[in-house]
Amino acid sequence: MQRIQESELIINKRGAVYHLDLRPEELAHTIITVGDPDRVAVVSKHFDRIEHKRSHREFISHTGVLGKKRLTVISTGIGPDNIDIVMNELDALVNIDLINRTIKPQLTPLNIIRVGTSGALQADIPTDSFVVSTHGLGIDNLLNFYRYEENEEEKQLLQSFVTQTQLNHRISQPYICGSSAHLIKHFVNNFHHGITVTCPGFYGPQGRILRLGLSNPHLIDRLTQFTFGPHRITNFEMETSSIYGLGKLLGHHCLSISAIVANRVTKQFSSDSQAAIEQLIKKTLDEISEW
Ligand code: R1P
Ligand code: URA
């Protein structure tokens, strides 16, 4: 079995993966990811007990127990570049023998659920409502660095997306990945469902104009107007497609759920975004407890 070299997978003196500073026994197999490091405690305050707390850079993690479930909540910080680190290191914790530095013969799937915030791209999805991402459509480019291929339905959706949005190659080579059927079935009532576009930034890449002109000023309208059969784009944010794409390649079950804090069509912003995210956390934990 090929040994993974020290420079490729960095293990610190604690025997923990480098960025997350987690050892295998400090990770549960159901994981909630949040962007904001302060949101970790907002999730773990619902746990019956916390077994491990780790903190390195923007990656704060709490592992504990809620009812019969062992859970880890971890912050990713913002953006797909951080997701590359988080997904690879979470996977290494369960699927690579960190002592022998070899891939384990029996692979372990993780449940990975992002609980984040997002901007709505449809007028009928109000602020403070919740969206479950049926697909992550990435204009962030991360998956283009891996050998990733869409299935037939995804390929058709993507082709239609490129045609309808006229997204040019200098901006992005988009990719798309569906959510886990295993997880999404638990999040139906009181959630909007739709395609989430993942952007490599918050301002220009999400069509926000402050002092700079945009190369594609029609981006928001084109995303809002996109349709493919029953599918439409509901929202955008900065992590979902990278989680879905890497999760699929690595064999994990992934779902992304967002509290809508901004509506980019009606131009409204939540009057209490903290309350909305707290409510989403509570609903998500209630669902997870029932599996
Ligand atoms: C931008 O403000 C951040 O908010 C959204 C975006 O994906 C991006 O990370 O999610 P979080 O609230 O989970 O960080
Ligand atoms: N997060 C984003 O990435 N965009 C928004 O508009 C709101 C939250």
TrEMBL record:
GO terms for molecular function: purine-nucleoside phosphorylase activity; uridine phosphorylase activity. CDD domains: UP_TbUP-like. Its EC number is 2.4.2.3. It catalyses: uridine + phosphate = alpha-D-ribose 1-phosphate + uracil. It is an enzyme of class 2 (transferase). GO terms for cellular component: cytosol. Residues 31-270 form the Nucleoside phosphorylase domain. GO terms for biological process: purine nucleoside catabolic process. This is Uridine phosphorylase. It comes from Niastella vici.
